[in-house]
């Protein structure tokens, strides 16, 4: 993943604000600047939490604890990181290990009767696939953020808050047709079915 | 871990239908390593631009309730150094103020309204007018389609058209107005679909040696096979000779070029001077204009015949052409207040939608338009 893709997490305004600091963030992080930690926290908390939940199934509170602990460990060992890729790798590995030991603990067996799949602790395609999925979701989330604001709103309401087109039309105070149009244009853009930048997309069937 | 990042990138390209053959092969080899990998490839297939709703909702909700102050708390409690904690808190509070300003700025932009009312303009429907060269005239507002026989003119279900207009005329014109489309089966069994603002001139009965019709506008022909009588379609700039085949002719008088797109069979096309002639293969298009010599290009059959399937279909289509097609179907006049926008449009749109939806598409695309009675004004 390129740095540019990561930075767009913060939206255009923040990107501009923080670009100057790009090279110094790692240095600040190593030097113990909490603002640098906050940047990494905001960058990775969503995919990491999702990653942890995909191990723990329905134990979201435990997943949160685990992810927070991963960041604590990262902070404690901050002097060892001089590269962003290493930070990401560290966070995923520490989170996965914590999830697995949680599932394996007597506490977990007693309270949740969770069976730990045998091959989960071995060389681990499932864990790998979970990480890929979390990272890919984050990429899509960033693409959604790049859509024009109205389309973003429509996608957010429809796909995140699971609202019907009529409900969206009410919530955003726009006609149903406008909702349909914004929705279908957003989907077209996300699909990138047509790549040419100058083309305007027109895709809609009743 | 670089391997992971690489796979994530490939999967994202695959999902966006933006992957090279080589990369796809690499991805498929990787997916073959384990069933969970194969599952990922299925989950992120290109026809699903956004993951399934419950999963996506779950993802977007992830991490939401984790705040940075929580993390700082946790770090502080492990170190139990109150002073450090306070400094961290202050710095976090400062960042939150900055972020607060940003989101205020963005949420103000969100509230821009898109609610401008657009007058009600309805899509086209099946209608036509029959004009005989003796001046007789009949309006057809029945959606059944016409059938020309030696017994007279019928609707396609066999019911006679009230007045038999076929008597005492050499030629008939089937005129489809703007906002209309119509289908007719000629006396030889050839079927013709006419798009909006198009006229087909044909005889009640064809001659014994050839079958000649004239087209202005756009029509799709399914020519009945008759090796002894070639079927000839004449337009402004082209003459198309066929034995039995299906093709689309687009020859509007306000278009610079006439285009014939062959769907199946074979046709011969020549320009009206007769100097240039070409034989078209299926999928090819013959293009000619007043100033343009006849030339052959590979055509887009689906796009050329989409109107017959009830769709607008654009593929890097210039705005001016998009506007013409829309104006013909919704019976509007286009007026450009400034320069004609130079944008291109791509995609499909059902022809059955209200004009309001089309207008929304154009507006969302940045075209500044206004509808005054039946005039579409482009600013």
From TrEMBL, chain A:
<dbReference type="InterPro" id="IPR039425">
    <property type="entry name" value="RNA_pol_sigma-70-like"/>
</dbReference>
<dbReference type="GO" id="GO:0003677">
    <property type="term" value="F:DNA binding"/>
</dbReference>
<keyword id="KW-0731">Sigma factor</keyword>
<dbReference type="GO" id="GO:0006352">
    <property type="term" value="P:DNA-templated transcription initiation"/>
</dbReference>
<dbReference type="InterPro" id="IPR013325">
    <property type="entry name" value="RNA_pol_sigma_r2"/>
</dbReference>
<dbReference type="InterPro" id="IPR014284">
    <property type="entry name" value="RNA_pol_sigma-70_dom"/>
</dbReference>
<dbReference type="Pfam" id="PF04542">
    <property type="entry name" value="Sigma70_r2"/>
</dbReference>
<comment type="similarity">
    <text>Belongs to the sigma-70 factor family. ECF subfamily.</text>
</comment>
<dbReference type="InterPro" id="IPR013249">
    <property type="entry name" value="RNA_pol_sigma70_r4_t2"/>
</dbReference>
<dbReference type="InterPro" id="IPR036388">
    <property type="entry name" value="WH-like_DNA-bd_sf"/>
</dbReference>
<dbReference type="Pfam" id="PF08281">
    <property type="entry name" value="Sigma70_r4_2"/>
</dbReference>
<feature type="domain" description="RNA polymerase sigma factor 70 region 4 type 2">
    <location>
        <begin position="138"/>
        <end position="189"/>
    </location>
</feature>
<feature type="domain" description="RNA polymerase sigma-70 region 2">
    <location>
        <begin position="41"/>
        <end position="105"/>
    </location>
</feature>
<keyword id="KW-0805">Transcription regulation</keyword>
<dbReference type="GO" id="GO:0016987">
    <property type="term" value="F:sigma factor activity"/>
</dbReference>
<protein>
    <submittedName>
        <fullName>RNA polymerase sigma-70 factor, ECF subfamily</fullName>
    </submittedName>
</protein>
<dbReference type="InterPro" id="IPR007627">
    <property type="entry name" value="RNA_pol_sigma70_r2"/>
</dbReference>
<keyword id="KW-0804">Transcription</keyword>
<dbReference type="InterPro" id="IPR013324">
    <property type="entry name" value="RNA_pol_sigma_r3/r4-like"/>
</dbReference>
Automatic annotation (TrEMBL), chain B:
<dbReference type="Pfam" id="PF16344">
    <property type="entry name" value="FecR_C"/>
</dbReference>
<feature type="domain" description="Protein FecR C-terminal">
    <location>
        <begin position="311"/>
        <end position="370"/>
    </location>
</feature>
<protein>
    <submittedName>
        <fullName>FecR family protein</fullName>
    </submittedName>
</protein>
<keyword id="KW-0812">Transmembrane</keyword>
<keyword id="KW-0472">Membrane</keyword>
<dbReference type="InterPro" id="IPR032508">
    <property type="entry name" value="FecR_C"/>
</dbReference>
<feature type="transmembrane region" description="Helical">
    <location>
        <begin position="87"/>
        <end position="106"/>
    </location>
</feature>
<dbReference type="GO" id="GO:0016989">
    <property type="term" value="F:sigma factor antagonist activity"/>
</dbReference>
<keyword id="KW-1133">Transmembrane helix</keyword>
<dbReference type="InterPro" id="IPR006860">
    <property type="entry name" value="FecR"/>
</dbReference>
<dbReference type="InterPro" id="IPR012373">
    <property type="entry name" value="Ferrdict_sens_TM"/>
</dbReference>
<feature type="domain" description="FecR protein">
    <location>
        <begin position="175"/>
        <end position="268"/>
    </location>
</feature>
<dbReference type="Pfam" id="PF04773">
    <property type="entry name" value="FecR"/>
</dbReference>
